Amino acid sequence: MTDHHAHHRHAHPDHAHHGHGAGGHRGHAPAQPLSAAGGAPEGTIYTCPMHPEIRQDRPGNCPKCGMTLEPLMPSLEDTGDPELEDFRRRFWWTLPLTLVVTTLAMFGHSLGWFGMATQSWIELVLTLPIVLWAGQPFFARGWQSVVNRSPNMWTLIALGTGAAFVYSVVATIVPEVFPESFQSMGRVGVYFEAAAVIISLTLLGQMLELKARSQTSAAIKSLLGLAPKTARRVSNDGSEEDVPLAHVHVGDLLRVRPGEKVPVDGVVVEGRSSLDESMLTGEPLPVSKQAGDKLVGATLNTSGALLMRAEKVGSATVLSQIVQMVAQAQRSRAPMQRMADRVAGWFVLVVVAIALLTFFGWGLFGPQPSWVYGLVNAVSVLIIACPCALGLATPMSIMVATGRGATSGVLFRDAAAIENLRKVDTLIVDKTGTLTEGRPAFNRAVGANGYTEEEVLRLAASLDQGSEHPLADAIVAAARERGLALTKAEAFDSASGIGVRGQVEGHALALGNTALMQQEGVDVAPLAKDAEALRNEGASVMHLAVDGRLAGLLAVSDPVKATTPAAVQELHAAGLRVIMATGDGLTTAKSVAGKLGIDEVHGEVKPVDKLQLVEQLQREGRVVAMAGDGINDAPALARADVGIAMGTGTDVAMHSAQLTLVKGDLRGIAAARRLSEQTVANMKQNLLFAFVYNALGVPLAAGVLFPFTGWLLSPMIAALAMSLSSASVVFNALRLGRAKG
């Protein structure tokens, strides 16, 4: 994984307007020093939740939509949201002034404490700090939207409140410029209370939205919180000391005591224990570990003490890579969002046009004072038509869904994968490591010509000690488990792809498939039925010859994962066609497929064959997902509509895929598909709400219903509705996090 963030810091000190492919933004180290001023860690990159291509090295606002930028990677060291604190301070300091101005506007004339002209001056003085100080961020964002030619919600709010305020200031200072029809109760009507209330309500809406948005990073923060803060390092002289996690290096020896978390990824050097890996995989049962077994950082050591060697630290650990994948997925854009973005851009221009039509329509044809009606209704149109709800509709759903997926062991690489997974109708699966454990295990031995099963296993294991083949490892491990005395092989020779030869205890041994036996002139007919029966059970068969005569055969099988049968059933129930494509022999492949009820089998396929199979199915009009775990699966994973990698597999496979199942359990595909359906439904709900809200709100604000009902929408009510619409979209998205999978 590469650190793109360093690149952004140096090459783009200011706003970086550039798009990124689905594979970018990895390699963010979770531990960073805090800045001297406190707050976010040093080197934090800030981005916009609605426009993830916007990046800068300091807090601020998005130049496209004006939204507050937030850290690309949440940090446990975050001391709070400075923007939220700033808005809170502006809101509470000016709220009393807003209440006084509103009370004067509503009841001042009936109280009769002072003349109406004097009241206008008092309202002006009280409103000045609200507009110029509390509303300053909104006007700054509105101006930025004009400069960047990116009309957005702040364009409308700045225009609306600015128009109401400037009109009222002119009416107070030089009322004689207005015609007599503008006079009401001894003064020209002013709308200071509209500007004040709109700014206060917008501040309140922003506070609610910022608080709700902070919850979308809760999943990443909970993942970051899994890692321990320190590790117990064992020195060369045997002494031990606790050191911060950032000080652990590859190769360090670390002690993990019962009840402690594994600090980083590594391997057990000595000791035995059971580890609870549920925090990463969702699997509740503890997993036994002993010398030579891999350990994953942040998992919990439940019983015995372990001595481990660190192999991956910092951003290279499994936990860090999961955090990076989740953060990257949360920032990606769904195809549905691109449509919403295009609509939102034109929407603002249309709204400004409607506001102008409203102003001139009322001014020219409305009842007296017609131009006052025109101004008030135009302001209402500008305020209620805020496109913020439209812009937030899909990013909020994506952020919540990726967080929920991560906590259940399903990692989406981007938003498009979430949106596309629900359309998949065909799933291609690899066999080894996907349907099966991927670790060959000794099945049984069969003796011939006077050799016992035990002797066949002992001789084969003695010969295989020199081999690095996984099948050889399974045979040697089985012999050692049974306590058989192995002898060193002499003149060992590996016959590529067909077996091995060598001298054991003065005898010439050959161990391999039928091709090797033919080369050696060995007759395998006596055990042909046994061999075929074992192959039909899904086992790989090797023959053993001693001094040119058949001594027996050995069967090694890759057991089907315990979860696979239930997973295939779930996938069939979801309407998916399941196809197996494996490099293994067709007989073995058909045996496994027959047990699992898989629809179609392709055996002895090469990586290019898997790729061609994906392309052929796509030409037939099928939406194809490919699930695999090896480097050989990478081309097909990248070509498929949705590539699904097993978290237990290779890094190459995971980087080629759009979806990773952390625990390598195919049941995760069905769960991820349900999450995809729920997320898209949630996005549609949000978009529908935003569209309906604006479709109803804008005509009402423009006064379309006034001739029939006498209804007009106050700018203050419009501001409240605008804030509530954005908040409702965010809270509806958060509901997705609690939905049943």
Describe it.
It is built from 26 helices and 28 strands. It is an alpha+beta fold and 741 residues long. The strands form six sheets. A seven-stranded mixed beta sheet has the order 16-28-27-26-17-24-25, with helices on both faces. β2 (46-47) and β3 form a beta hairpin. α2 runs antiparallel to α6 (192-215) and α5 (153-173) packs antiparallel against α6 (192-215). The longest helix is centred in the C-terminal third of the chain and has 36 residues, at 667-702. The chain is elongated.
Write the layout of secondary structure elements.
Layout: H1 4-11, E1 16-17, E2 46-47, E3 54-56, E4 70-71, H2 82-111, H3 116-134, H4 136-147, H5 153-173, E5 183-184, E6 187-188, H6 192-215, H7 218-224, E7 230-234, E8 240-244, E9 253-256, E10 265-270, E11 273-276, H8 278-281, E12 287-289, E13 294-295, E14 300-301, E15 306-312, H9 318-331, H10 335-365, H11 370-384, H12 388-407, E16 410-412, H13 415-421, E17 426-429, H14 431-435, E18 441-447, H15 453-464, H16 470-481, E19 490-495, E20 499-504, E21 507-512, H17 514-520, H18 528-536, E22 539-546, E23 549-557, H19 564-573, E24 577-581, H20 586-596, E25 600-602, H21 607-619, E26 624-628, H22 634-639, E27 642-646, H23 651-656, E28 659-661, H24 667-702, H25 706-709, H26 715-736
Parallel strand pairs: 17-24, 17-26, 24-25, 26-27, 27-28
Antiparallel strand pairs: 1-3, 2-3, 2-4, 5-6, 7-8, 7-9, 9-15, 10-13, 10-15, 11-12, 11-14, 16-28, 18-23, 19-20, 20-21, 21-22, 22-23
Helix pairs in contact: 2-3, 2-6, 3-5, 3-6, 4-5, 5-6, 5-11, 6-26, 7-12, 9-12, 10-11, 10-12, 10-24, 11-24, 11-26, 12-24, 12-26, 13-24, 15-16, 19-24, 24-26
